[in-house]
Design a protein that fits this description.
- The chain is mostly helical.
- It has one domain.
- It contains 15 helices and two strands.
- A two-stranded antiparallel ribbon has the order 1-2.
- Helix 8 packs across helix 11, helix 8 crosses helix 12 and helix 10 packs antiparallel against helix 12.
- The protein is globular and about 60 Å long.
- The chain starts with a helix and ends with a helix.
- The relative contact order is 0.11.
């Protein structure tokens, strides 16, 4: 695959993700103004659990479909509709579970008042798998515009619906419900756009969910790829649920307002630093089809990882420099003290920008190479270290919210280091194997005829068979 096509696709997705994140950050202005720090903390409590259910129902689907479609473009529609039937059912089950266990989840996360956010996020889980299937289908065909535009539309209509509902609701619980219902409204518009785009792209062909048969082999192939990716993408949301419990309870033990501080950390500081991380999302999204469907995998891998590192490093520097301006523009309603704390948190999280961006691309590279289990192992090790460190920092040393920053930075660094180390070792072995397979065979001539000397790679077979001619 051409370098220009990869970078163009990455740029389109990055631009779409960036505009989406800008809208998401702007949405924080009315969200913070209406919910305040305490309400924002409750709102943020729901999203790790929501993200976890999304991961179970859809997170692995885009990458799995992108990989299979890029490898077998002729079977693209079969893969898409098989994914609809299989993962749609999982979405329904996930939504029901979220609705049933909304109160126990809220209690586990630290505050029962967060249960309306859990409850009203359930409808969004119903349709997110279909959105994920469409995005994976288009990315596998290296059509990045539909994904980018659908992300923007999703965020835009969430913004409009959220502001409309927040203005007309009065209690904290009703505002929480309104803010989460807005998520569902945004997803409805995103799904509608993707469906219309798919119909237009398949103009002249009769489209029906039941036209394409669900091939068991296709479903097995999708699940084989999806399962480890789902486990991988579920690790961090699952850890965030544990984080909220450890951090909030730890801060309450030192007589601090745990919910408000957690809201500033996860709802303000992480919102800002995730903006530059989202710009690198395009590179990770095109990595799977580019490497899976490409010939020179090592060269494409090097291009994606190097570009990600350089871009994320520049963004980390800009985030450190312009943190005060970002807080002033995005979160003007915060008090002076909270603004100062948010700026310090953003600056302390600049290493996270580099490591989180790299981890996206590195994980996508390993997925494309069929080595997802390596990412799973490295991320499990990293989050285990993170949780243990948080317990030590908050329980033993009575750290303030900066303990969460230290643990998060170290977590992503460990995951990146282990993955890159494996890619380096695996890449060297892959190169050596290719060189052995492609090495020139010695040629000699005798009696006017040319003979080629076959050099077998397996010397044991060579000695046993003596096929030297």
């Amino acid at each position: 695959m051409k370098k220009s096509k990869i970078l163009t696709g990455a740029f389109i997705l990055a631009l779409g993700a960036f505009l989406t994140k800008i809208l998401g950050a702007l949405y924080r202005v009315p969200l913070t103004a209406y919910l305040k720090a305490d309400g924002l903390g409750l709102y943020q409590m729901a999203f790790p659990a929501y993200s976890l259910l999304l991961d179970f129902s859809s997170a692995g689907v885009p990458n799995a479909l992108a990989k299979k479609v890029s490898e077998n473009p002729n079977n693209a529609n079969d893969y898409l509709f098989s994914a609809f039937k299989s993962f749609g059912l999982i979405s329904v089950i996930s939504a029901i579970l979220l609705a049933i266990f909304c109160k126990p989840l809220a209690i586990f996360c630290g505050d029962i008042n967060a249960y309306p956010a859990f409850l009203f996020l359930a409808p969004a889980v119903l349709i997110v798998a279909f959105i994920a299937c469409f995005r994976g289908y288009f990315q596998g065909k290296m059509l990045t515009f539909p994904t980018a535009i659908s992300q923007f539309l999703e965020q835009a209509f969430k913004f409009i619906a959220g502001v409309f509902l927040l203005k007309r609701l009065y209690t904290v619980k009703s505002k929480l419900a309104g803010a989460t219902i807005a998520v569902f409204i945004g997803e409805v518009f995103a799904l509608s756009f993707l469906a219309v785009t798919f119909i237009i792209k398949n103009k002249g062909e009769r489209i029906s969910l039941f036209r394409y048969k669900t091939d068991k082999n296709l479903v097995k192939a999708l699940f084989k790829i999806t399962f480890p990716i789902t486990v991988l993408t579920s690790i961090f949301p699952l850890t965030q649920i544990i984080d909220s419990a450890i951090i909030i309870k730890g801060l309450k033990n030192i007589n601090a307002n745990g919910v408000a501080l957690y809201g500033l950390f996860s709802g303000v500081a992480l919102t800002v630093v995730n903006l530059p991380v989202s710009l690198c999302y395009g590179l990770s999204a095109v990595a799977v089809p580019a490497i899976s469907g490409g010939k020179d995998k090592s060269k494409t891998t090097g291009l994606i990882i190097t570009t990600t590192f350089l871009v994320s490093l520049a963004f980390a520097f800009l985030a450190f420099l312009f943190a005060p301006l970002g807080i002033k523009i995005i979160f003007p309603s915060l008090s002076v003290q909270n603004k100062r704390l948010a700026i310090n948190l953003i600056r302390a999280l600049t290493p996270y920008i580099v490591f989180a961006s790299l981890l996206q691309s590195v994980n996508a590279t390993l997925i494309a190479k069929g080595k997802t289990f390596i990412s799973v192992i490295s991320c499990v090790i990293a989050v285990t270290i993170k949780v243990v460190l948080e317990v030590i920092l908050f329980s033993v040393f009575k750290f303030n919210i900066y303990g969460a920053v230290i643990a998060l930075n170290l977590c992503y660094f460990v995951a990146c280091f282990l993955n890159l180390l494996y890619i380096k070792i695996y890449g060297n072995k892959e190169t050596q194997s290719r060189q052995l397979n492609n090495r020139k065979q010695p040629i000699f001539s005798a009696n006017g005829r040319v003979y080629r000397l076959r050099v077998p790679l397996n010397l044991r077979k060579f000695r046993r068979r003596r096929n030297f001619y």
